[in-house]
Write a structure and sequence with these properties.
It is built from 7 helices and 12 strands. Helix content is about 30%, strand content about 20%. α1 links the parallel β1 and β2.
Length: about 270
Amino acid sequence: MSTMNKPLAIATIFAPSERNAAWYSLQKRFLAKTTNVPFDYSVILNGVKPVGFDPGDVVLVNHENVGHGEALMQAVERFREDRHDAYLLLDSDCFPVTPGWHHILTDLMTCFGRVVAAPVRTENLDLFPHPCAFFLLDEALADPRLEFRKVTSSRNLLGFEVSDAGCAAQEMGDSLLPLLRTNVVNLHPVAAAIYHHLFYHHGAGSRDFEFRVLKRFGYYRHCYPNGGQQAVGERLFRALIRDPDRFIDRLMGRRQTALSRVAHLFLSRVRRS
């Protein structure tokens, strides 16, 4: 579809958090350096005062936190009023990390005949699309299954019922390109995630650093303790803020270790001999 608007519309939702200034700065920085098509960027403040945000970015202020699902649908409704070729819903602690991600993702969606793409957090035992980075082509915008307000649940990989904002959109599975975790380096079972080598999602960016796969199910208890998670979350956040590029490059395997450099040099010499 061709429009007179910019090809891409991006909306992000900020909930109450002392870290919003850091997330806002990081998100805008990475969007600017990795997005190679013109885009409109809008912020919905969900129980957050519009202090420290560019007034030109803020399109809606909910004076009280109306819930994540409601805020997501507010963004979707704004998308429907001002049409573009594609749309991206982001959590405040999520942003693209690969230059040209838009073209890479749309090419993949064309290849597989899909009109929606989103992380499916199998590492959290989930089977539904998570709205931390929910990408839609224009033809998906009118799909009545695009719904986040409805409180619903989904069976996870263990067969237990779980409830999350993304559960309501699980019926779009036949239209979905799942973006799976592709970390080369994992510093946490769920947090500090790289999805399809396109998006970074910190996880629990504006809430207590807890995940049901650890707290409720204890799935990783034999190799990763549930205790002390707040301290783990603090260390991960500080490492990210201290040097975002280095931190993300490490997760994606872009920075070789000394051992891998030696191995690469050895293989190069073998190939030449």
